[in-house]
Amino acid sequence: SLIQKYKEMELISEDASERYRVIEKIGEGGMGVVFKAEDTVLKRVVALKILNKTLVTDKRNLERFFSEARSTASLTQANIVTVYDVGQIKDDYFISMEYIEGENFMNLIRRKKDFSPSQIVFIAIKLFKALDYSHRKGIIHRDIKPHNIMITKQKEIKIMDFGLAVILGDQKKGESGVITGTPYYMSPEQIQGIPVDHRTDIYSSGTTLFHLTTGHVPFKGENIFYQHLFDPVPPIKKYRSDVPEKLCYIIEKCMEKKREQRFQSAMEVLNEMKTIKI
């Protein structure tokens, strides 16, 4: 059986497999393996994230794992993947969350999917609604990128994996020298390893929307950190001419190097997005 196979591979323990019936493996990341599973107690299908065994010995990673779960579990908003449960069963540390039938935007980009300006605005409005909500709760996502934004079969937008989420004011995990994030979408302050605030999500949302709009990341190559810090954002119009000026302006302003020059809140971006006439 699949359960037996995963037990043999030591991806999931005997005890965890009693509560959760594994259906299939659906993903793997730096922090752990994700399964589609049935919660046999609550009788529902979930996404079950099991922390990599190699990380369990690292107290910092465990803290980060539980911080992720606690942060996300406090978020109940239509565009954020719901966390149901977090815990430890014998050797396994797990997060049980809403299972989403859908696809992440990175997969769509890889398939050369083109997004119309009106689709970009629709996605942006949902993204910034989710961020406005989480920021008001004092939670920064810290790793906004196309991989972490899903579209469901019902065409709903869902933000997932608050894996690097930090409670505002709890800067231990954002201390100097610790770079967290994904290079193509990281804010200058993340690259510099200085404490971040909610405006880091505004920058990463800008780079993500740039990628969705143009089909290209704004910066790439060996000097990607240098480019995020010093190079101007390539004009969106260079890649496509059908994007309204206002949308170009909003995305480019989100990506200002100095956070004081960006939009100062997700709500500010939302209000601007809603004025675009397409």
Describe this structure in words.
It is a single chain. It is globular and about 55 Å long. Strands 1-2-3-5-4 form a 5-stranded antiparallel beta sheet. Strands 6-8-9 form a 3-stranded antiparallel beta sheet. The chain has a two-stranded antiparallel ribbon with strand order 7-10. The longest helix is centred in the middle third of the chain and has 20 residues, at 117-136. The chain has 10 helices and 10 strands. With 278 residues, it is of the alpha+beta class. Helix 5 (117-136) runs antiparallel to helix 7 (199-214) and helix 5 (117-136) runs antiparallel to helix 10. The chain has helices at residues 2-8, 14-19, 59-73, 105-110, 117-136, 188-192, 199-214, 224-230, 245-254, 266-273; strands at residues 20-28, 32-39, 44-51, 83-89, 92-98, 102-104, 139-140, 149-152, 157-159, 166-167. A hairpin with a 2-residue loop joins strand 4 and strand 5. It has 2 domains: 2-98, Phosphorylase Kinase, domain 1; 102-273, Transferase(Phosphotransferase), domain 1.
